User: Fold Protein EXORDIUM from Glycine soja.
Amino acid sequence: MKREKMACVYPGQLLLLCLILSVVPIAVSAGNDAAPLTNHGGRLLTGKLNVGILWYGPIPKAQKKAILSFFRSLNMNTPAPDAAKQPQVSSWWNIVESYGAASGNNNNIPVKVVNQVFDPNYSYGKVLIKDFIKPLLPKATGGNKNTLALIIASKGVTVQDMCAGSCAQHGLIENQPYVAVGNPEEECPACAWPFLPSKGKTGAIMKPPNGNVGADAMVKLLAGGLAGAVTNPFGDGFFANAHGGDILEATSKCPDDLFATTKVSVDLKTGGAFNAVGDKGTKFLLPAIWNPKTSSCWTPL
Assistant:
């Protein structure tokens, strides 16, 4: 199930670097497709999910705060009657968990950040290809087994395949699953839609719910990468074939254009657009996700 993918550093970098890498299939936001996501017989990540984060580059406090709040929100349920009034981040995560039921397992997934490491000086430079991501993974996990490694890169860092097929990278290196996300504000504004204009996208540009384009775009991309890592961690889980030999996964199956046609709430105080509420009332705009039970795209609103 592995495929070759061309990774290129786009203009604006001092170095043009193109190379063929063998990776777990890349999920692309290629729009909806008639074929549903199906389980190809592979294992899913199940049970308690420990996450280790490596913050790569000088990432602002606001972005760290939003991302950590997102993780705390995944298993947090707002007590009634408030729960009926506000869409929940945990409801979005429940859809991710439901992939386990679709494959015959009871898959409650409590998530906990168990390790954080900081690399503010770009120890492997500002172009993170797979070879450079590899030595960062044990640092992210702190050597803890059964931990999902998460690499979060600051503005100005090009993460492998950003703008070249996938806004959020997830894969497997020597049996270590990982997710790698960059700040798309400068490197790939298309990955920051609907907070930044993007060619070919329809609908109004929306204000980020936390007032920081980088923070809210990274949460949105992280959510998609996390869903893919859980539902298709080894490249043989839930996915659908797309045109051009790529694949669609849990969130890339549902086109971003849904934001232009589905209901999105607006915070009356800040004007920020959101579709889910989590820890301490923090608001997020999460990607639509394929619901395996209804075989349709779903959002918290």
Notes: Confidence is low (pLDDT under 50) at residues 1-31.
